[in-house]
Amino acid sequence: MPPDLAELRREAQSCKACPLWIHATQTVFGEGDPQARIVLVGEQPGDAEDRAGHPFVGPAGQVLDRALAEAGIDRAAIYVTNAVKHFKWEPRGKRRMHKTPLQQEIAACRRWIEGELAAIRPDLVVCLGATAVHALIDREATITGLRGRIIERQAGPAWLVTVHPSYILRVPPQAHSLVYQSFVADLRLARPFLPAPAGGPEDRESP
Questions:
Q1: Domain coverage including residue 171
Q2: Is residue 204 part of a domain?
Q3: pTM summary value
Q4: Which of 65, 73, 76, 181 is the most exposed place for a label (fewest CB within 10 A)?
Q5: What is the pLDDT of residues 99-152, one digit of tens each?
Q6: How many domains are contained in the chain?
Q7: Residue 147 within a domain
Q8: CATH code of 51's domain
Q9: Residue 34: inside a domain
């Protein structure tokens, strides 16, 4: 039987498999519908998530929420998590600045993301950013090479690759609208994997 999400969450709270726990406030586990057909996987919690204990609640989470709404996806109907469960940061003045996790830190957290996917058994996993791609698909894969299409597999959920919403916050203002709309277009590809409305047939071919 796949591991229970609640039990995984309890175990992850005391994870010390890599040094990231030392400077993090807490483990930030995934949240959402435990029977979700779509799971979104990001990189790691940011400063706001580390303090709040919830994934995607900071500036990048606000971008994600807005994009999901425009794509016609209710966040309450999906599950969101990260490949790494502790915030990795470095001091810059009084601020804690994000630092990309190393491969060994991603590997140390693999049991948690694999456990979440085993418990939920989604039809689609959306990889938000390169760290999620490297953790789940291929260490050598690139977003550019995989983006913009549903990647069906013989066993396991399909993949959908796109940028991390934090990337949209970093692009120059003149490019923001184009990058954001491309992100929304990617998320729209996931919409057919949502359960059909009550009383209506499921339609995996709807736009």
A1: 5-193
A2: no
A3: 0.92
A4: 76
A5: 999 999 999 999 999 999 999 999 999 999 999 999 999 888 999 999 999 999
A6: 1
A7: yes
A8: 3.40.470.10
A9: yes
